[in-house]
Write a structure and sequence with these properties.
There is one protein chain. This protein is an all-alpha fold. The protein has a single domain, classed as MFS general substrate transporter like domains (Growth Hormone, Chain: A, Up-down Bundle). Helices cover 77% and strands 0% of the residues. Helix 6 packs antiparallel against helix 14 and helix 6 packs antiparallel against helix 16. The longest helix is centred in the N-terminal third of the chain and has 35 residues. The protein is globular and about 60 Å long.
């Protein structure tokens, strides 16, 4: 194992996100199908992703506050345990045809994602402000390797099987095993990243953590918050409906993993390059350009019916999210001290996930009642309008965020 604690912790956090990505990939691919199969009601296909995302929203803010109080490592470990239990409960729901167990399992898996994604706060702790976007990118890149778990692990488990609940039991148990590895990785993190953050924070200028309402009034935070909410909400809302849309085009459920893998590759394949460019050229331009790429990709869903073109559209959606979200997350990390960072990012995730859950629920209704055009156009508008607002703020001479307490 690496002796440098920054490099070692970066590797462990990135590997944790590999496990999270693998677990979430299964839920994203089959959550809509699972809930429809266990209830027999097609019109609620968006409810599965909505439960998953709403649970993540509910835990994100208290998890972030807990991170600031007790450290990053214990909270990430708790999130990993929630993922293990959630996947096992969902598998039980599939085995016993129980909607209650499936819903509880989805909620626990969502809570896991909402907590473990706060590894971004730990990543920001490890690096000086001038290298922070790249540091966050290094950790996020771990999720790229999780993209391989769908085709390598879950696709063979579902290939050639009928669209029935029994076929989903083993894949969910496999996802629990993957997240079990994630728990072991968290327990190996030493020292806690929040302790390392002290070296980038000048103790002579350090102040007690400010109230959230005060942090939200700092220069640039509104733009970072809007960019993070828009990019994350549309990305997860569309991604979580992809499984049902692909099957609706006449493809097999196992084909969904190819599309989701392409999406995850788009999310993380260029993350190192993008992080370095954001550090060099600025946060706001990244947010605006990323939202523009997402808009084009969402619009492309109107015509994407084959697995190939669906994969291209989802790749573009992931790439646009990568650019905009890393830019927005870095704005927010720059605006907060180590004692405030978990709280701010947790609040951002709360609003982002809640918005994503709403979009998934409404998108499911729009898709079943009107069709893919309504879903695609709604998602496009939801990234275009915030992008235009942020662009207007920039051209109006809005101040940039100055990293706090930098020596």
């Amino acid at each position: 194992m690496l002796r440098d604690p920054i490099k070692r912790n970066t590797l462990l956090l990135a590997s944790l996100l590999t496990c999270l990505s693998g677990m979430v990939q299964l839920v994203v691919a089959v959550s809509t199908l699972t809930l429809v199969l266990v209830t027999g009601i097609e019109s609620i296909l968006g409810l599965g992703p909505a439960i998953f995302l709403a649970a993540g929203a509910l835990v994100a803010f208290p998890a972030g506050k807990s991170m600031d109080r007790v450290g990053r490592r214990p909270v990430l470990a708790a999130g990993s345990v929630a993922g293990i239990v959630g996947c096992c409960v969902t598998a039980g729901g599939c085995a016993f045809d129980s909607a209650a167990l499936v819903i509880l399992g989805f909620a626990l898996v969502g809570a896991s994602q909402g907590t473990v994604l706060l590894a971004r706060a730990a990543a920001a702790d490890l690096y000086a402000p001038e290298r922070r976007a790249r540091g966050i990118s290094l950790v996020l890149q771990g999720a790229l390797f999780g993209a391989a778990l769908g085709p390598l692990v879950f696709r063979p488990l579902l290939a050639g099987k009928a669209l029935e609940l029994d076929a989903l039991v083993v894949p969910y148990l496999a996802a629990a095993g993957i997240m079990g590895i994630g728990l072991l990785l968290v327990l190996a993190i030493r020292p806690d990243p929040k302790e390392i953050a002290a070296r980038w924070h000048d103790p002579e200028t350090a102040a007690p953590a400010a109230p959230l309402r005060e942090i939200l009034r700092r220069p640039g935070v509104r733009e970072g918050l809007v960019g993070a909410i828009a990019s994350f909400a549309v990305m997860v809302g569309v991604m979580n409906l992809t499984g049902y849309v692909v099957v609706g085009h006449g493809h097999h459920q196992s084909d969904v993993f190819d599309v989701i893998s392409a999406h995850i590759v788009g999310m993380y394949a260029l993350v190192l390059v993008i992080g370095s460019l954001i550090d060099r050229f600025g946060r706001r331009p990244a947010v605006v350009s990323g939202l523009a790429v997402m808009a084009v990709s969402c619009l492309g869903l109107v015509w994407a019916e084959s697995v190939v073109w669906s994969s291209v559209a989802l790749f573009g959606l992931g790439l646009g999210w990568n650019i905009s979200y890393v830019g927005a997350a870095t704005i927010l990390a720059d605006a907060a001290s180590p004692a405030e960072r978990g709280k701010l990012l947790g609040f951002t995730d709360l609003v982002s996930s809640a918005t994503g859950a709403t979009l998934a629920l409404l998108g499911g209704v729009a898709y079943t009642e009107i069709g893919i055009t309504a879903l695609a156009l709604g998602a496009t508008a939801f990234v275009v309008l915030p992008g235009l607002w942020i662009l207007l703020q920039s051209t109006a001479g809005g101040r940039s965020v100055r990293p706090l307490s930098v020596r």
